[in-house]
Amino acid sequence: MERNASSPLSTTSLPTQLPLNTTGDRNATVKPFSVFDGCDHQVEGILFDLTVQSINVIVGLPANVLVLAVLIRNRKEPSTSDIFLGCLAFMDAYFSVMPPIIFLNLYHWQSKAVWSSIKFSYGVKDTSGPLFLACICLDRFVAVLFPILFGQLKHIKYRVSLSVLVLCLTFAYSAAKTVGGLPNFEKVFTGEILATFTWMVVCNISILWTLKRSRGAGKDEMHPMKKKAFKMVLSILCIIVFNYLPPVALFPFEDYYSPDVFRCYVQPVGFAFLNISSTIQPLVYLSRLEKVPFLSDTCVKKCCSCVSAENNKTPPVQNQNA
Questions:
Q1: pLDDT tens across 218-247, in order?
Q2: CA distances (Å), 48 to each of 60, 137, 272, 278, in order?
Q3: Matching CATH number, 3-26+34-311, of 2.40.50.90, 1.20.1070.10, 1.20.1510.10, 3.10.620.30
Q4: Pick from 5, 4, 1: which is nearest to 250 by CA?
Q5: Per-residue pLDDT for 311 more than 50?
Q6: pTM for the whole thing?
Q7: How far apart are CA 18 and CA 51, in angstroms?
Q8: Does 172 score more than 80 pLDDT?
Q9: Half-sphere exposure of residue 7, counting CA atoms within 13 Å on the CB side?
Q10: How far, in Å, CA of 260 to CA of 224, rounded?
């Protein structure tokens, strides 16, 4: 579901409820603005989401900045997905600075203007993350399954054009989210997340299936480079399922929950899994590098201990062209 229409922190309400700032009777007293939007006494789900987002501030923000630094440093020998990775890292870094502002607005400022800027950042996260990941999956899908076509479409202009399109869609969605009041606008995010999740899963499974089949004649073992690519794609598929499956599984069944339960508990928990991707995605990218610039190996292992344990068995790939 879309945050602007039914998020616990939204300034608008569900269609089944009266808006916070209006009533059915014009002569009735107008309720004051509340950043909790009816969840003032049911804040557990909101705080869970914000606690998860705090990890983005501590780990995700520096990780995304480091990803941008690595991409800039390697700009002379870029991979085809670097422009998508750079846009995704920039948007995730922007989203990662918002949790302190959200906390301050909840418990100190309580400003409607500040909440409008927060809603815009949520719109950026809701749209840019899934769409840029879908672009990365498309790039790899074409590279593995259609290598001849991929060679013809390697020019950067195609990826720049696609990135501009995604950015336009992101800012249009975020602006509409900030304004609010559009009928059935919350269904836009539901449709987007279902479509992109399905596309990413299909792409990655197709890539894994193709790599699994591409073994040498009479050999049981996969080529070492293809084996590395296979493990990389498998790890990305696991992350996509972990981050996107909860909202995909929960949000389409809004009608089965009471409005308060869905708005105050189900949505924040579902979005928490989506929001933590701002930390997981850059760490996965950094863990695949043979050498992370600006950081010692000890520091990298501490930040990416779980992924590094797997990479110690198989040397990681420094760069990728798909």
A1: 455 666 767 777 777 888 888 899 999 999
A2: 17, 30, 7, 16
A3: 1.20.1070.10
A4: 1
A5: no
A6: 0.79
A7: 29
A8: yes
A9: 28
A10: 53
For the segment 30-66, what is each residue's pLDDT rounded down to a tens digit? 555 667 666 778 888 888 999 999 999 999 999 999 9
43 phi and psi, to 5 degrees?
Answer: -95, 0
- Number of Cβ atoms within 10 Å of the Cβ of 206: 16
Half-sphere exposure at residue 55, Cβ-oriented, CA atoms within 13 angstroms: 18
Alpha-helix residue ranges (DSSP H) falling in 180-304: 186-213, 224-250, 259-261, 267-275, 277-287, 297-303
Token pair 């009816």: residue: 38
What is the number of other CB atoms lying within 10 angstroms of the CB of residue 293?
10
Question: With contact defined as beta carbons under 8 Å apart, do 140 and 203 qualify?
Answer: yes
Q: How is residue 212 written in tokens? A: 């699994």
Q: Which residue, among 195, 322, 194, 274, has the nearest Cα to 7 in the 3D structure? A: 274
Residues constituting the chain = 322
pLDDT at 321 over 50: no
